[in-house]
Amino acid sequence: MSTQLNSAQLGRAPHNDKRALNSSPISTPKELKRQLPIDFQLRQQIEQQRNDIRACIAGEDSRLLVITGPCSLHDPQAALDYGQRLQQLQQAYQDKLLLVMRAYVEKPRTQVGWKGMAYDPDLQGKGDMAKGIARSRLLLLQLARLGLPLATEALNPLVMQYLDDLISWTAIGARTTESQTHREMVSHLSMPVGIKNSTDGSASNAINAMVAARHSHHTLGMDGNGQIAMLDTPGNADTHLVLRGGHGLTNYDEQSVAQAVEQLQRSDCRTRVLVDCSHANANKQHRRQHAIAVDVAHQHRRNPGTILGIMLESFLLEGRQDNIEPLAYGQSITDPCISWEQTEALLQAVYQVLAP
Predict the structure, then answer these.
(1) Structure pTM?
(2) Which residues contact residue 292 at a Cβ distance below 8 angstroms, ignoring those fewer than 6 apart?
């Protein structure tokens, strides 16, 4: 009796199944990093910036951590313009604030929509990840060379492998906090990571993620050569909670922060929390970020052991626009942002609270 299995038994896709055809090979992480490398000096700068953020998380640095920048990057020229301005503010406020620029090239979508520069760099609604990931890496290189620490949100663990050496702080979003894959990814990352509370406002899932991420894992992934491999992750102790509100509820007030800190203590996690001044905490009203940031700055001054920092959505122009040509220069095509002038006023107000 023959033991040979046919294609149906093996689970192979039939030759006319389009799923077997719709693939476009791209460079491996190792190849792209060789094409767009970081030099020794930049590598040292990024490691020092990671250590500065680690010191803030541990309470060894009393400065307020400020993650600020566009909701997403879509225009390299406008992103560099913003970065140059932010670097000048860092020099002015560096004794009280540690500024980190948002450099998000992936965007989570509730249903569908533009997924970020890494996926659709030409804003055409057509995927071109070979071009998108290369453009993203080049832009992050240029921003890092300005002297700024960079922040991003990690959505696809494979995309992160192309960019991880340029990032000083990474966010895990509210939608992916419960994902085992993302918890294992955080365990493998070499920079500090902020984990957001769930979309319902609960901190429990984020705290569970922090506990999981500080342990090592055996997980399936890709190595730098593009080879599928089992990864032995080392664990990441440099995680913290990000409070972003949820389902119409805010959680940046002193009582909510205290409750979150108590939960963190029970799980033996880092207790300093970062407040997202946008999203549900602002009820999706971008101008409310100013008042929230000032409130949190006062909390930081009263209780520096509980407040790590703030996160802002900020660009050159206020608001947002649809992805329709012609695009206004320096305005978000995803979430609405405060303008550069509003950002300057906000950071000045926060600085004055901390250094009266």
Answers:
(1) 0.93
(2) 252, 275, 277, 281, 282, 310
